[in-house]
Amino acid sequence: MSASTLQPTRVVIPAPATTRRGGAAALVGTVALLGLLYALVVLWPLGRWVDERVTVRVAQAAGREAHTAETLLALESAATVAAVLVAVLVVGVVRSRVPDAIAAVAAAGLAALATETLKLAVLSRPETSGFSLLPGTGSFPSGHVTIAVATAVAVVRVAPPRARAVTGVVAATLSGLVGAAVVVAGWHRPGDVAAGVLVAVIAHQATALAAARLSRSGRRAGCR
């Protein structure tokens, strides 16, 4: 018997098909939820009116707090977001999770690009009269909220397991503050905020699926 026949064979155990299908189904479901939200709070006159009524009431009740909200939102600058995403990459290198870190950063970039595309070219607000309190204001989805949530989730994705719960609470709190601030400042409607969250989730779902697929392909190629 030759030595080559005694060499062990590497066995690749692929992810269960049910897990892969579950991730794809979750992505499709979130996209469908975004479409449903758009129909309810933008296309449906009554839904749009309710969404705008809440915005007006909050802005009227906020008073001077609107200035505080704008000050908070000013902290979400391109430099701040870039610094956080660089930190995500550094953590990925330190924890030997570079592919995950790259996927998380890519999700943040994809979310920002998707939001700009959606609100400017796809999910625009129709010019209407009647059930309308804020014609021509706001946008669907909120870019500030999308970037805040996408960046926050990127941080959680690379956090050590022991710190993930605390990191998640902090990330959710900061994202929630941004979501509240854009409404208090009168920049967006609540529906825009919810849409921003969904776009960020979609981006992370998509990159997670892509990363998993690339990882499986890499393992299979390594066994040939």
UniProtKB/TrEMBL annotation:
CDD domains: PAP2_like
Keyword hit for Zinc: no
Domain of life, source organism: Bacteria
Keywords associated with the record: Membrane, Transmembrane, Transmembrane helix
Membrane-crossing residue ranges in chain numbering: 24-46, 72-94, 101-122, 142-159, 166-187, 193-214
Family annotation (InterPro entries): PAP2/HPO, PAP2/HPO_sf
Phosphatidic acid phosphatase type 2/haloperoxidase domain: residues covered: 129-208
SUPFAM superfamilies with a match to the protein in the record: Acid phosphatase/Vanadium-dependent haloperoxidase
Protein name stated in the entry: Phosphatase PAP2 family protein
